Every structure is written in C-alpha cells, then in structure tokens.
UniProtKB/TrEMBL annotation:
It is an enzyme of class 1 (oxidoreductase). Residues 102-278 form the D-isomer specific 2-hydroxyacid dehydrogenase NAD-binding domain. Its EC number is 1.1.1.79, 1.1.1.81. Keywords: NAD, Oxidoreductase. InterPro entries: D-isomer_DH_NAD-bd, NAD(P)-bd_dom_sf. It comes from the Bacteria. This is Glyoxylate/hydroxypyruvate reductase A. It holds the Pfam family 2-Hacid_dh_C. The keyword Transferase does not apply. The keyword Iron does not apply. One of its GO terms (molecular function) is hydroxypyruvate reductase [NAD(P)H] activity.
Length: 313
C-alpha cells in the first residue's frame, strides 16, 4: 500500500512540533489546506472543523491527539473510518501524577495549611490514615486503572465505576446504572476520569454529589474532575460547595473552556483550578505511536486503540 499523506488539523494547539515530527516520515498538509485532497489518507486532529474529514475521499484513519475523542464526534458528518485514540505511557503517567497530587493534597489538608500559613497560624489538625479514606474512580479505563494502582500502593481504599464490570485486584468495583449509587455511597473522594458521551454528559450534578459518603475523616466529600468539563454542571458544584455537600474540589476541566473570567469557580476558596492541564499530549511521545500505526495499517495489520463508535469512546 502506498505511503499516505497526513492532514494535520489542530484547533487551539500550535501545530509546529506535531508537523515537524510527522514530517520525519510522512508528507504533511496543514489545515486550512487539504480539504477534498485525494492524496490525504490520514488525519491527525484536535477539534477539527466540521465537515472537513468527510471532504477527504481517500481517508483511511483519524488519529486523535488526545485520549478523549468527544471533540471528533462533534462533527456531524464524520466519515466511517477508524478513529484512533491516544493510549501512551507518558500521558497515563501525567494523569496518575495529577490524580495522586490532588488526592494527597485534599487528604493532607493542603487548603487548610495554605490558609493557616497566610495567617501565620501554628496548628496541627488531626491526621487520618489513608486507609480510612475511600477514593472512588469514575471511569476505570486506561487512566483510571493506572491512578487506582498507585492510590492502592499509598494505602487508600479504592472504588471503581465503569460501564461494564471491570474487576481489579484490591479495588471494589461497581458497574453500570445499578452500581452508581452504591459506588457513590462508598466514596469520600470522587475522581472523574470518564469520557464525554451522550450517556455521561452532565453526570456530575447535585444529585450525584449528594450521594457521596459523609462519614469520613476529611470533614466532607471531595470532587476531582480531570475527565471532561461537560460531564459536570459547574453551577451544581458551586451549590454543593456552598451548602457543605462538598468540602472541596479540584477541577481541571469546565463546561466552557477556557473558564470564563466571570466564573465564580476561579476565586472560590474551596476550589483548586488547573487549565485542562492534567495530562498534556506531548508530540515527542505521541507522534512515533501514530507513525507506527500508519505503517502497520499499510502492511495490512490492524490498528490499535480504535474507538468503539457506538459507545462513543
Ligand atoms: P478509557 O476509554 O480507557 O476508559 C473510559 C472508562 O470510562 C472505562 O472504564 C469505561 O467503562 C468508563 N465509561 C464510559 N462510559 C461510561 C458510562 N456511561 N458509565 C460508566 N462508565 C463509563 O479512557 P481513558 O482512561 O483513556 O480516558 C478517560 C478520559 O479522560 C478521556 O476520555 C478524556 O475525556 C479524559 N482525559 C483528560 C485529560 C486532561 O488533561 N484533563 C487528558 C487525557 C484524557 P468500560 O471499562 O466498561 O468501557
Ligand atoms: C485528552 C486531553 O483527551 O488532553 O487527552 O484532554
């Protein structure tokens, strides 16, 4: 099979390094060029322009530069070709670091100590062992499982919730709609690592937050969302923080990104904000995986990490 050309279509991300690295092995066409070009067989995308992919008559595969693919499904005329998501050790490691960082900061009362330091207060509040705290991971996929295994090694009790039953040694697992409430009722710190699909949109709402476990050594339940912003209702999180349903939150993703300057989440004393930066897509690590997959396809081999179109992730 002939070596196909690659269309690079990134919105909001500088294409320079991606282009340079892809060009090591392939001819690269940078959007807005390339529409309808019959010589293009692959597209590497982030939030591509709607109807762009369907204009490419010989497209064989679409590569997301992220683990999430909701940005690709937003296109109403998505052609019927395989969509490949990112599965890469380096991205998984970044996400594990973020989750462990945020869990430990909430567990070890970082917010309280930062505020005590500002006021020059010398006071040691009671400490609880990690084993007293249940971290519940919503989305026990590639990223959720990796984070779960490090949290387990730190001594936390870990719960996991997924669409289908996904047993994992040491983790109490729950699945599907029937498992959601029992999972929440057993969880002190909720970590959201779900993909955004029609089924998961808005799932982090007030009713769900209300179900989190109240009996714990943290003085309240905690939300950490590094999945997608539209999984959550920002207003419900604010309401839950204000009435004590939630003690604190770490949010990496938001309903609207960048988070509008007018959002109260920016200045809320119980919220830790990062700008969708939990696990960055590094072209140095990801481009070689994409190039390897393109070559494999041309040798007649199967693509790996192809998205299940029906499930949407
Ligand atoms: P995976 O596809 O490996 O895992 C997704 C998990 O979510 C699976 O366990 C799946 O269940 C579960 N799930 C999906 N739909 C439902 C549902 N309706 N009900 C219950 N569980 C469900 O994804 P990754 O771990 O690779 O990535 C997860 C998400 O993290 C990405 O989609 C992306 O949105 C986000 N992300 C965010 C980043 C950031 O910087 N903030 C960086 C990278 C990713 P099952 O196991 O049964 O299939
Ligand atoms: C991703 C992301 O999906 O960075 O990889 O959000």
């Amino acid at each position: 099979m002939e070596k196909g050309r690659v269309l690079l279509a990134l919105t909001g991300i500088h294409p320079g390094r991606w282009r340079e690295l892809l060009s090591g092995e392939r001819e690269v066409v940078l959007e807005p060029d390339g529409a309808s070009d019959p010589s293009i067989t692959y597209a590497v995308v982030w939030k591509q322009r709607p109807n762009l992919l369907s204009s490419l008559p010989n497209l064989r595969a679409v590569f997301s530069i992220g683990a999430g693919v909701d940005h690709i499904f937003a296109d109403p005329t998505l052609p019927d070709v395989p969509i490949v998501k990112v599965v890469a050790d380096n991205l998984t490691q970044y996400m594990t670091e973020y989750v462990v960082w945020r869990v430990l900061d909430h567990h070890r009362q970082g917010l309280l100590y930062r505020s005590q330091q500002q006021k020059k207060i010398w006071h040691e509040p009671p400490q609880r062992p990690a084993g007293d705290i249940s971290v519940g991971i919503m989305g026990l996929g590639t990223l959720g499982r990796a984070a779960a295994s490090v949290l387990l090694s730190l001594g936390f009790a870990v719960n996991g919730w997924s669409r289908s039953d996904k047993p994992m040694k040491g983790v109490s697992t729950y699945a599907g709609e029937a498992g959601l409430i029992p999972f929440l009722n057993a969880t002190d710190i909720l970590v959201v690592l779900l993909p955004l699909t029609p089924q998961t949109q808005g799932i982090i709402n007030y009713g769900v937050l209300k179900e989190l476990r109240k009996r714990n050594g943290l003085g309240g339940s905690v939300l950490i969302n590094a999945g997608r912003g539209r999984l959550q209702k920002d207003a419900d999180i604010l309401r839950a923080l204000e009435d004590g349903t939630l003690k604190e939150a770490s949010l990496d993703v938001f309903e609207v990104e960048p988070l509008p300057k007018t959002s109260r989440l920016w200045s809320h004393p119980k919220v830790f904000v990062t700008p969708h930066a939990a696990a960055t897509s590094d072209p140095v690590h990801l481009v070689p995986i994409m190039l390897r997959q393109m070559a494999a396809l041309e040798r007649g081999e199967k693509l790996e990490n192809v998205v299940d179109r029906k499930a949407g992730y």
